[in-house]
Amino acid sequence: MSNHRSNPRLLALTLSAATIIVPCVGWSSTRGDSANSERRTITGFEFIGEVSFPTGYRFDDTEVGGLSGITYDADDNRFLALSDDRSDLAPARYYSLTIDLSDGHLDSGDIAFTGVTKLQPRFGSYFAPGGIDPEGIALAPNGGVFVSSEGDASKLLAPFVNHFNRFGIQDLELEIDAKYLPTATSGIRNNLAFESLNLSPNKRYLFTAVENALVQDGPQATLEDKSLSRILKYDLKTGKALGEMVYEVEPVAETPEPATAFATNGLVELLALDDNGSLLAMERGFSTGKGNVVKLYQVLSQGALDVSAWDSLLWKEEGVPFSIDPPVQKQELLDFGDLVETVDNLEGMTLGPVLPDGRQSLIVVSDNNFSSTQFTQFIALALNIETVPAARPVLETPRTTDAGTDSPLRGDSDDPAIWIHPSRPDKSLVIATLKDGGFVVFDLGGTVIQQEVPAEYGDIRFNNVDLVYDFALDGKRVDLAVFSDRKNDTLAVYRIDPNRQRLVAVTSSSMPATIFGVDDGSATAYGLCTYRGLSDGADYAFVTQADGNKIAQLRLLDAGDGTVSAEVARMIELPVPTGDAEDSQSEGMVADRELGVLYVAMEDIVGVLKFSAEVDGGNDYSLVQSIDAHFLKPDIEGLTLYYGPGGTGYLLVSSQGDSTYAVFERSGDNAYVGSFVVADTDGIDQANESDGADIISTALGSRYPFGLLVVQDGANDPQNALQDEEELENDSTNFKFIPWENVAKSFPEPLIMEPRTYDPRQ
Q1: Do 699 and 421 form a contact (C-beta atoms < 8 A)?
Q2: What does pTM read for this prediction?
Q3: How many distinct structural domains can be found in the chain?
């Protein structure tokens, strides 16, 4: 987009909505390469230079200006910069140029234009004046380029994303869904369409986005309103659109002068950092009389809701945009106004060469609108990039949906527990909660072998589950699965039958009817973990309070009739720094059965805490990790322990806000080791927005010789996107099974793999 109104001299040229689709098979790498599954995160940056060219600068008989997009050709160490000249001053074109960063800086004389390629449609000569509005450019694997055009909504000129060969001749049109085509009441807004374009590093996925909301999706950005931009993701292996995600564009930053004058803010560029779904996004705002405000954001698209099925994102009943659960997540990295004295109309960016000191260069370029009051500006940054390793699952369970349609399981997957068979480890089970849907039992192949809803759907809510081994019940030693029932503020207990591989209800009628004694239906039993006391040998269940700051430690009891009851033996109070106990809610907990400590994750504040797990342990705690750490992003959810030899091993923490798993030493002061993600592979999608997790270091047959990690996937794909009043959401969830060695070996220094050091029955 240029910061000017449509030129009335432009000729109207309306393109047909029909498109030609040419499959791109062979242009991209295949899914499942572990090296391509790692996540890259920006941890720091440095401004390393600025170079400007005056308006009117000429090269090869063309005026250099309107540079709206830029891409880097690493093989030839050259850049390609796209002009957004609509074939008015010269044919639509892109320039080749070199940028010398060999000394780690960008200085005057470091940029040289070396060539120009003029764009041509499939048939005929150059594009007619006004027949194209080129904005984004991405280097294709075959030496050609993809180019995005905004079109012209005022003349019903459709936007496009097309491929041009190395000679500049169009030879491919990607399909554009009808919702984007401009009409009087829908489609793109003028000058607010496909401004951005970028390929993933493996060259398989192509991203573009509308700069602001489509007409039917809600308002464009104003001083008061955000705008719902759609990010469109293409799979170049098929040539088809893979999905659409919502990016929330910030409101206009500054009031124009006069107040009724033109002002805007929009998403002008995207840049894929990895093949895992991490992006950089640039928003450019302009207010008359004030100038440009340009900000760079780090974006996580993993697990974002696919809204491609919705032609409109407007909730018609209330006349406001839907709340999207979730949109892509973003975090501001920098304001270019803090780096340079004058910020021009920055619109394009690309990763350049690696700098001599090992940092990654980023080049940003401005569209000067061919205006004498502006200039063509190049800005260079050095980025510090951290790589988060990826562990690959080997299977996933059937998906669960709340409606139970098109899926074998009804409910909401939440928390798993891995039960070890007493004599046949390969016959071990994974027991998991489905909230309103009760519980489900899987074998180690992910097959459902039992599902039970012990009451009418919604009359119980099994939130978390953990195990008790060798519990003395009615004169026998049995294994138990203990569930927290959030709906009824109590526990549900089942005996595990190893021969039939089924759970049998053994909850006593004397089980406390309420744990926390609050009858408002909200501050009830939530998170749960079990523990056997080191000093008294008694079995306990720790239960957190939803919307509260309490943790109850309940002693599990043989009721004398083959059932299990419980009594509250201790009540822990979590800190309440905000003064409101609801802010101190926790769910994730795990008790170290050998070291006698209880780890608690406060979801949104403070961080991960460590208490004594012994019944007389009191309220004293130590802080394992502050929630302000860069590798934790709220909510902080599931906790689980990997038991290594001699008190070694790891504490795993689900950082739900960025879909990573932080690893800490189990011993000593719980030093941070690193983080990892659960990536997609071989037809299995990533695990995102993870709640519960469980890990076993014991060998479980030939499939899991070093143990098993099971995590909940809170944003499972294929999605089940639906409307829930004012919200659009995905209610598809399931569990991913990851062999422990896939986690351990993903780290630069592999983690411990000791499968014979832990037996929960000893």
Answers
A1: no
A2: 0.92
A3: 2
